[in-house]
Amino acid sequence: MSSIETVISDALGQYQDPVLGMDLVSADLVKNIAAENGRCSLSLEMPYPTKGVAEQIKSDLKTVLTALDGIESVEVSLSHKIASSQGQNNLPTMTGVKNVIAVASGKGGVGKSTTTANLALAMAAEGARVGILDADIYGPSQGMMLGVAEGVRPQPYDEKHFLPIEAHGIQSISMSYLIEEDTAMVWRGPMAAGALQQLLTQTYWQDLDYLFIDMPPGTGDIQLTLSQKVPVAGAVIVTTPQDIALLDAKKGIEMFRKVDIPVLGVVENMSTHTCSNCGHTEPVFGAGGGESIAERYETELLGQLPLALSIREQVDSGKPTVVADPESAHAQSYIKIARRLAGVLAEKNAKPASVIPNIIVEDD
Questions:
Q1: What is the CATH number of domain 88-350?
Q2: Which of 232, 292, 304, 334 shows the greatest Cβ crowding within 10 Å of its Cβ?
Q3: Residue 219 reports pLDDT greater than 80
């Protein structure tokens, strides 16, 4: 490396990546540096989808490097490569899926499914290939939230697999695609767990960077099936600031700990409400709950989302906020959370895989 290239590398070592919060050199993101006759070119390979931050990074680096003596012009090439996760219990990776992310809550009614849909769409907006698996066998809702018309059915791929349904640029599968809308799933737990296993193993996912699994509330058969059969990269816990929701969210975190699935972060939903008449904002369900639970369990508060009529109306209409109004403040909140989630997962994937003991669950 020439002296000017060393100076450039030192400057890059002072620039903090906006998603990872680490400098480019320490994070090993710089793949090539070349400088000649006042012209500098460098290539970066990021471990997260970059569509939303690429122009900012390029602009920042041009400003940083053209300030150096002897550098007159800068060309930045930026790409991304998302690594596959090592799941719990050394389970083999899912075919066609790099990272499985479980979105869970301890109780119903906290907006988990709405959050799942918008986070998945936000990650796709950032440039990733994304899928959703609706694991709520008894109350599947992702089909309606994604605007999939009633009666649309997955098409067979071969004798053992079927293709996921595509909506808004993401792949999805749900029990709602296989039954009539008014059909009640009057099944015992093992039957529901078996149905989930079929959705997991018989869906032909196509080169996904992230598969979001919309979990049912609770800590029962579905959760155990997931932990035993699927290599989960990590879980996102959705809660409201309300004390009763936080109590159940803690149980959800403890469950994931017992089956060696890391909690990547907490999303506090319905954090505040702004009156549409007077503009007054208040924390109707309390304040600080998401932050306190994240601190207690040494994880991260990925973001806070408001209680807003538009979010509910848009997801009910089959066009969640991120696609219905992508420039809105609410959509940008989802995108910031998705971006940080991608960063947390990239940091986890960059660490050497640890040896994890097998978990055996037996009936008493």
A1: 3.40.50.300
A2: 334
A3: no
The CATH architecture to which 3-80 belongs is: 2-Layer Sandwich (3.30)
- Name, in order, each residue with C-beta under 8 angstroms of 179's C-beta and a sequence gap of 6 or more: 185
Instruction: List the chain domain ranges.
Output: 3-80, 88-350
Cβ neighbors of 247 (< 8 A, separation 6 or more) are 106
Query: Which of 185-194, 239-248, 317-326 has the highest average model confidence (pLDDT)?
Result: 317-326
Q: What does each C-alpha distance from 347 to 18, 23, 26, 53, 83 come to in angstroms?
A: 13, 13, 12, 17, 10
Distance CA 101, CA 31 (A): 28
Residues near 324 by beta carbon (within 8 Å), at least 6 away in sequence: 314, 317, 331
Amino acid at 151: G
Whole-angstrom distance, CA of residue 46 vs CA of residue 31 = 10
Q: What are the residues whose beta carbons fall under 8 Å from the beta carbon of 172, sequence distance 6 or more?
A: 131, 132, 133, 134, 142, 143, 146, 148, 164, 165, 166
Residue 19, pLDDT > 80, answer: yes
Nearest to 166 by CA among 182, 187, 140, 146: 146
Percentage of residues in the chain having pLDDT higher than 70? 96
pTM: 0.91
DSSP state letter for 285 = T
pLDDT tens-digit map of 137-171 = 888 899 999 999 988 999 999 989 999 999 999 99
